[in-house]
Amino acid sequence: MFRGDGPALPAGPGKAPGQLGAAVMTPLPHGNWATSTLQEFKDAFSTALQKLLEEKHLYQAVLVDLSLTRPPAARGQGRGAQDSFLMGNSRFASKREDPGETLDLVNALWYPEGCAAPDTENSQGQSSEPAKAAGQSFVLPPVRLMCADCQERTTFRADLPRCTYVQGKDAPDEQSLVLSYECQACGNKRLTFLVSRKGARMQLSGRDSIEMLPVPPGVPKAVAKYFAEAQAAHRAGQTLAALYLLREFVVQFWHLLPELQDALAANPPASGREIAEIYAAQLPIDFRTQYPSLSNCHQSLCEAIDAAETPSDVFQVCSSDILEHIDGRRFRRLSGCSSSPFGKPASARPILQKITGILGSGPASKPLVFL
Fold first, then answer.
1. Judging by DSSP bridges, how do beta strands 152-158 and 143-147 pair with one another?
2. Can you spell out the DSSP letters for 27-72?
3. How confident is the model at residue 137, as a pLDDT?
4. Has residue 29 got a pLDDT over 80?
């Protein structure tokens, strides 16, 4: 690297300072190199936090990209790597890493830019303000999250006056960040995150409110909360709870169907397995062969719950089959669907009559022909 990244040794006879030849270009020491890339460190922390809030769920974590903690020559090491930009002894000097220098920034206190330091003291009775002065700041990035009020993914930005952090008891690289984000679309919904940091690792330790994913439009609104909570539990790693909520969604869906009301009234209280048999018996044969069985999904969920087993594929397979089954009912307009939770299908006759009346209101009007 020859753009001032390292001082040139005195030139030899007939050579100008900085000219290749007798002059050898040496890189800066590791600590100075890391300091010169402070902005890259800040960007790495902001990028890691953005990924954590957008893509990860409760108790999941991300690692800050620490490739910048090593000098360019060290990053290029490996089979086939060449240090063509360094010459002579500089190539070997650049590879002598000193963890005490290169990881100073990583192990330092990092706090959100514009966030006030809490009025607290650490275990040694020292105020947090001096620690903040010795630390480094990073920008809280905007994130795209699901807004319960907007019912879609919108942009959330940090509300800095309501953001704070707590330094670790002993080590400066241990922190707890309390981050408040506000929806920029409606201005009403606020989300609060608890992020725990240990060195280069960031973990989502808590959030308020709980993450709710958008429910597919075919799911009846009366029972949509069971499906949404099942998804949230599954993403948080609570698979057994997710299976129970998904099974409850199926049972409550059956209770909503008008064609099952008489059978349920004649046999109270019916168990889930009994309702599954009644429901399967009233389905057309061609529908049962064309679409996944809701009764089989209920049975698979019951078996997994009774055995207290949490295979990862049961939830995925059952939730996919349930949605396909419900979409099949909507598409086929089965008996009873006109008064089912999906609502009555709209008729096109009033629209055609209105168009005919508008276009055929003139004196020389002709009947409309629809091809």
1. antiparallel
2. PPPHHHHHHHTHHHHHHHHHHHHHHHHHH--TT-EEE---GGGS-H
3. 85
4. no
